[in-house]
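Obj: model holo form, ligand = pyridoxal-5'-phosphate.
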Amino acid sequence: MGERSFATRCVATTPFDPTGAVVPAIYLASTYAHPIPGACPPPAPMPCGTNEEGGHSYQRWSNPTRAAVEIAVASLEDAKHAYAFATGMAAISAVFSTVKAGQRVLLCSSIYGGTFQYISNFFPARDIKYDLIDDVNALRAEDVPADTAMIYIESPTNPRLRVVDIAHAAEVAHQVGAKLAIDNTFQTAYLQRPFELGADYVIYSATKYLAGHGDVLAGLVLANDEELAEQVRLAQVALGAPLSPFDSYSVLRGLKTLVVRMDRQLENAERIREFLLAHPSVTAVHYPGSENAKEAEIQAKQSQGAGSVLSFEIADDIHLPTFVAALDIIGYAVSLGGVETLLCHPASMTHATMNDQELAAAGISQRLLRLAVGIEDASDLLAELQRAFQVSKGAAERCLDNSNSES
Ligand SMILES: *Cc1c(COP(=O)(O)O)cnc(C)c1O
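Output (holo C-alpha cells):
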C-alpha cells in the first residue's frame, strides 16, 4: 500500500462499515450487547470502529465513532495511541492526572489561560508543586528540581507567539527522568511533529484547527509509551469526560479539510503579517520567530510553518473600541483555528484572569491584539483592516470634541 501522505490520511478516516457508508455513522448507544462467555458458536467480531479492546461495551469506555477519531488522529501523528476527550481542558486534565502528590511540574510561563487556571487551583490542592519558567530554551538539567515529574510546554505560546525548543525541553526532561508534555494545538501535526523531537505526550484542543469550524469542543491526548498511554486511558474512563459520539463525528468531518484549511490560513496570515509590518499605526507584530534570531532558528528547525495566529500592537492614536467596531467580517471573539477570522484583546479577554503584573510578565500590553486568521479572501480581510485603521485613527479625540460641542 505504501505510506500515504498526510493530506490523504486526513480524508481517508472512515472505518469499515457493514452498510458501506462512506462517512462514519454516529453510534449513540450508551451500551452494547455483551458476548456470552462460553456461548457456542463464539460471537462474531465487532464490524466497525474496533478499539484496542476489540469490541464495545459501554460508551464511556469506548464508542465506534470516537474510536474512528482516535484512530485517525493517531495516524496523522504516527502515534501508537490517541484518546479523545470532551474538551481540550479535559485532555489536559487527563495528562495532569498522571502527576502524583509530592511531585513537581515545570511549565513555560505563557501557557493557555485554562491551563493556568487548572494548575493554580488544582495543583496546590493535590499537593503538586509547579514553577513557571520564563525561558525554557535556557533551562539546564542542573536547574531542574529533583522532584520534577513533567515539563509542560506550548510552542508557539499565546498570545506572544514565542518559540519553545521542543527537542531541548525533551532532552532536559529525560536527563532528569521527567516526561515532556506539549500542547500542539496552534500547529497540529501538519506543521509540527513533537514525538519526532522527543515529546512523551502530545495534547490538542481539537476545538481549534483539527475540527476547524467553531462548532464543537474536543480534546485529544496522544502517547507512544504503553505505560503512559494506559494512564491516559484510565483518566479517560475514570474521570469520565470522553468525546461524545456526535462531537466525534464533527471532529472527523472537520479533519478531512485540515490541510486545505491550514494552507489557506497560512497564506492569508502571511499577507496580513506583511500588511501589519508595513502599517504606520502598528508598533509591533508578533509571530513565531519574530522575537529574536535564536527563536527564528528554532522555529525553522522544528516547524513547517508559522501557523495562522499572530498578534500586534497598535499605536496610541488608534482608538481601540472604534477599531473593533469597524470590523464586520472579522469577529471579535476568543478562540482560533476555525474557518472565520477572529480578533481578540488578550488583556481583557483570553488573559483577563491575570493581574497587571502577570500581564506585564507575559508581555501582554493593553495595546496588544491577537488575530486568528481564517479562510476568507485575504483581500477582503486586508481592506477591512485598512478601513478600521483609517476610521479609528484619532477617533478618541473626535469623540471628545463631539461631546464637548454638545455640552
Ligand atoms: C483552546 C485551547 C485549549 C483548551 O481547549 P478547550 O477545547 O477550549 O477546552 C487548550 N490549549 C490551547 C493552546 C488552546 O488554544
